[in-house]
Amino acid sequence: MSQWEPRNGRNAPRQSSSRFLSVVVGGVMLVIFLAVVSRSCSSSGSDWNGSAVSREQSDTANSAPRQQQTPSATVPWDYRLVEETVGDLVGGDMKLLPDEDLLPNDDNYATGDKIWALQYMGAVMKTEEGNRADVTLTSWKAIKSYKTKEAAQGDLDKLKLSLKAEIDLVGVYKTQYQGQTREFAVLTLPSGQTIKQPVDDARYEKLKPLKKVEVMLEEVHDYGDYDMAYAKFRGWAA
User: Fold this and answer.
1) 62 lies in a domain?
2) Cβ contact 142:97 at 8 Å
3) Which residues fall in a compositionally biased region of kind Polar residues (predicted)?
4) Domain residue limits at 77
């Protein structure tokens, strides 16, 4: 056993030096490994940011611009009285001929009876630039039946009113086309929409200095909601 002790004693410095060298090499390798990992993470982060921007730009480029929706509203436009004939009876309803509208048979009419129907027309209005209205009219539709024309006329007179009112005059202007001069007046209705009306030379000169003007309006009320009404220009008051 004593023979081994001097031998181990002679190799101890060499083993310590070898162990120290291994630690140094291992440390250097660890530093290199950490540097590579750090660079890889940095590169990966850069690539992610780039792809996010690219994707966002691609989404923006591929998304088509949305068209602005023009606001619209349905207003009462007109009423009329029509004489109809009762056709088929369907449950508690009756079909009116020749328009084939279906109404409740509240007055117990029989097939072949002559009655009067109140018909309604609405207007889908879209406000365009300059408060001008794009108007689309609905089809006529029967909304109530009457035994006599007098009773029907009583309701019609309440739904369509003729009145005189003072409204804003935006101004007057002239246009020329193929040697002909045309003159117009631009008015603002109570609804806030603007309309233009042709005028002759005399009215053009009369309206030129004015800011307000008296006109005749037809005020059409909604049958189901009387407070809802729309006023239409029906002529000059004077």
Assistant:
1) no
2) no
3) 59-73
4) 72-236
Q: Which residues contact 121 (CB under 8 A, 6 or more apart)?
A: 77, 78, 79, 80, 137, 138, 139, 140, 141
Nearest alpha carbon to residue 230 among 12, 78, 24? 78
pLDDT in tens, 23-54: 555 555 655 655 544 554 444 443 333 322 23
Q: Write out the DSSP string of 70-124.
A: PPEEEEEEEEEEEEEEEEEEETTEEEEETT--EEE-TT---TT-EEEEEEEEEEE
C-alpha 58: how far from chain center: 28
d(CA 164, CA 166) in angstroms, rounded, equals: 7
Does residue 76 lie in a domain region?
Answer: yes
The SS3 assignment for 36 reads helix
3-state secondary structure of 66: coil
> Higher model confidence: residue 30 or residue 78?
78
CA 233, CA 196: separation in Å to the nearest integer? 10
The span from the CA of 121 to the CA of 76, in Å, is 7
64 found inside a domain: no
pLDDT tens digits, residue range 179-221?
999 999 999 999 888 999 999 999 999 999 999 999 999 999 9
